[in-house]
Design a protein that fits this description.
Elements (H helix, E strand, L loop, with lengths): L2 H18 L3 H13 L4 H17 L23 E3 L5 H11 L2 E4 L4 H22 L36 E4 L4 H13 L2 H9 L3 E4 L3 E6 L10 E2 L1 H4 L5 E7 L3 E2 L6 E5 L22 H7 L5 E2 L2 E2 L4 E4 L4 E5 L8 E10 L9 E2 L2
Helix pairs in contact: 1-2, 1-3, 2-3, 3-6, 4-7, 5-6
The chain binds 2-oxoglutaric acid and fe (ii) ion.
The site of 2-oxoglutaric acid (AKG) has 10 residues, from strand 5, strand 7, strand 13 and strand 14.
Amino acid sequence: MSEIDTRVQQVLQQAAELAVRNDYRSAMDYLAEANRAGGEAELERQLLNYAIDGFAMADHGQVAWNTQHDDRFAGGQGLPVIEAADLDADMLRAGILGRGGLIVRGLMDEAQITATRACIDQAFEARKAIAEGEGTAEHQRSFARPESVSGGPVQFGSLGNNQYTNSGSVWAVDSPQAAFSMLEFYRRIGLPEILQAYFGEPASLSVRKWVLRCVPPNNGAESGWHQDGQFMGEGIRTVNLWVALTDCGEGAEAPGIDIVADNNREIYPTGTHGAPFDWTVGQGFVDELGQRCPVQRPHFKPGDAVFFDHYNLHRTGFGTADKNHRYAVESWFFANSVAPAKQQPLLF
Ligand SMILES: O=C(O)CCC(=O)C(=O)O
Ligand SMILES: [Fe+2]
């Protein structure tokens, strides 16, 4: 065994001893600390296993949620926009609960954008190579499913017959390297603390709603308007952080997202008003909403983000003269006490 392999085995062993005592959080911290020194597929994958197991093993209690906010954005038009330095739980409350969402400029820095885009490219490449029977040990960091992930297709975004392109979507947990990089990002921007203050309890991520995306230009195409609350579960409390890694949206040359800027907390009818699918909200319905609230196509620079929750109505916003693929990461967080088991929550 090489020196590195020996070190990795020792770290895994130490972490396992913590996990066996039900101290998953310490096991995760221990793995994260060790992984910062280099970046090892096995450490990253095991960290995700403990994140999933740790959530499942813990009692998250029953927590009441106080939805008061100071309505600081009252009177404005469209989604409020703030700078990353000003982000805190009160901003998030006034944005999401008061206005239906919050745009945050410059949330992700240049280095993290570059690293995340590279992780996404590598995940697609590895997925393709593995599907074509050409996977190597190297690919394991970019694309390998942690054992604790259960259910669902092994991979999604397939063209059928296990054929993959270099675009589409990948669950973040299926790319341990990308997942680790994003977990480090959330930690650096203080997101666990912000969400804890927002929900009044700790928050978790979810296997199924933590997604790396690379959307190809598809000029003139239309995608489905949807509310994620339509299919995520009942009685949930959520925050989605959608961060653009490409210049996109209005005035840019890559698809962004279109958003209805509305704080109405209601799940709308699907499959009506000309909706192309039974899970989408029809354009006719959106046009009606548009008479009382803005339907926006915001411009996002790389690193800009938008926060919203499961009541928000949005879609992938295809343009007419796009030239570029759009990279983004979608991260849905749940208040732990009401996190839906079917989304497979994980500690973060
Ligand atoms: O990235 C996209 O185009 C869609 C994102 C989305 O639907 C979401 O974040 O919930
Ligand atoms: Fe969505």
